[in-house]
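Need residues for this backbone.
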């Protein structure tokens, strides 16, 4: 029964991705982050200060501010990089840093960009094997002028003897320039599905971004459908980590 349920959900994701692809392919717009066709080596750095590190609707920094940074490289359709952030879990887990290693490819077809990759979440110092491996498959494209859509599926085959999938869909709209800023609004809905019958939940966000040169400010509202008891069962770390919240972030991207 569990296997048939999983296959059905994978088919739904594949169908959604196909619809997103065909919709964007006929839209006639350009992609916001379409990889360059020529083979060219690129690199990037980012540094972010945020009022709260929220991952899939759940605070990973105990509702406190933290610092994040990344380094990425690209060559043609290939990309890879490392991203790190401060976290604040309970003392028994004893992890203060999350380090994510990622790699993948972004091929294009018509007006759609696909994203096939792998992410390894590493938590130095955490006991009892909290590290996670996820596979990612997604598609994005401009649906109509200035409106971009994304659909992404994440799959983890084995985390503490568990297996889960994460489904995300999002929209972003570029607003007219305001003084020196290039504003945009965006929103996302996601669903974490525990295939082993554990805690599954939905999460969402919506926010406004203001970009100027290499600096981006972001104000975002987050929430989940977890109540206090379900939040504690899911995180093992508190009942108020899954509540609604506003998160402010400022990011510098180079070059």
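Answer:
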């Amino acid at each position: 029964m569990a296997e048939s349920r999983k296959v059905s959900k994978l088919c739904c994701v594949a169908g959604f991705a196909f619809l997103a692809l065909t919709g964007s392919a006929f839209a006639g717009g350009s992609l916001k982050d379409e990889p360059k066709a020529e083979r060219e080596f690129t690199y990037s750095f980012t540094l972010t200060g945020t009022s709260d590190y929220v991952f899939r609707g759940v605070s990973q920094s105990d509702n406190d501010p933290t610092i994040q940074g990344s380094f990425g490289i690209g060559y043609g359709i290939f990309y890879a990089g490392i991203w790190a952030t401060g976290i604040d879990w309970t003392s028994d887990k004893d992890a203060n840093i999350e380090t994510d290693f990622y790699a993948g490819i972004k091929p294009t077809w018509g007006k759609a960009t696909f994203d096939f990759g792998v992410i390894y979440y590493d938590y130095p110092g955490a006991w009892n094997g909290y590290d996670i491996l996820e596979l990612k498959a997604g598609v994005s494209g401009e649906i109509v002028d200035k409106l971009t859509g994304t659909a992404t599926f994440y799959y983890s085959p084995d985390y503490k003897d568990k297996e889960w999938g994460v489904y995300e869909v999002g929209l972003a709209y570029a607003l007219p320039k305001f003084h020196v800023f290039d504003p945009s609004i965006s929103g996302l809905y996601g669903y974490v599905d525990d295939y082993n019958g554990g805690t599954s939940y939905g999460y969402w966000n919506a926010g406004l971004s203001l970009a100027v040169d290499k600096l981006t400010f972001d104000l975002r509202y987050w929430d989940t459908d977890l109540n206090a008891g379900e939040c504690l069962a899911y995180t093992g770390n508190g009942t108020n980590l899954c509540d609604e919240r506003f998160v402010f972030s400022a990011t510098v991207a180079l070059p």
